[in-house]
Design brief:
By secondary structure, the chain is mostly beta strands. Helices cover 0% and strands 47% of the residues. It has no helices and eleven strands. The protein has strands spanning 4-7, 10-13, 18-24, 32-39, 46-52, 59-60, 68-73, 78-83, 92-100, 118-119, 123-128. Strands 2, 4, 5, 6, 9, 10 and 11 form a seven-stranded mixed sheet that branches. It is globular and about 45 Å long. The termini are far apart. The relative contact order is 0.32.
Length: 129
């Protein structure tokens, strides 16, 4: 079993920055895909950024490319999402999630896939214009 706990969300003005953290109880042995998802108000959950266990295959949603950066610290078992130049449309509940035994795929950025079996409880990001 893997537990994930997000933190770092909050209110921010448009153009500002935030760094989200996701404390992971343990990263699994072997292959996995880990990443960030978000659910804007009234919309379905969507992928934001994902990466594989060896820090490769970093994939980003088109709307966040160049503004968001995903990273992880294996020693601290923590996943991060650095968000810059925030926009009102980035307002959402942000979740981290992990898919054991899976390669990261572009399709993961379209919606929250069933492959991600472990999820955090979410942290709210609210961007005001």
């Amino acid at each position: 079993q893997v537990r994930l706990v997000e933190s770092g969300g909050g209110p921010v003005q448009a153009g500002g920055s935030l760094r989200l953290s996701c404390a992971v109880s343990r990263f699994p042995e072997g292959l996995y895909c880990v990443g960030w998802f978000r659910q804007p108000p009234g919309k379905e959950r969507e992928g934001v950024a994902v990466m594989e266990e060896d820090h490769t295959s970093l994939l980003y949603r088109n709307s966040v490319k160049g503004r968001f950066t995903i990273s992880k610290d294996d020693a601290k078992t923590t996943l991060y999402l650095e968000m810059r130049s925030l926009r009102s449309e980035d307002t959402a509940m942000y979740y981290c999630a992990l898919a054991p035994g899976k390669l990261c795929r572009n399709s993961y950025l379209q919606k929250a896939p069933e492959d991600f079996t472990f999820w955090g409880q979410g942290t709210q990001v609210t961007v005001s214009s």
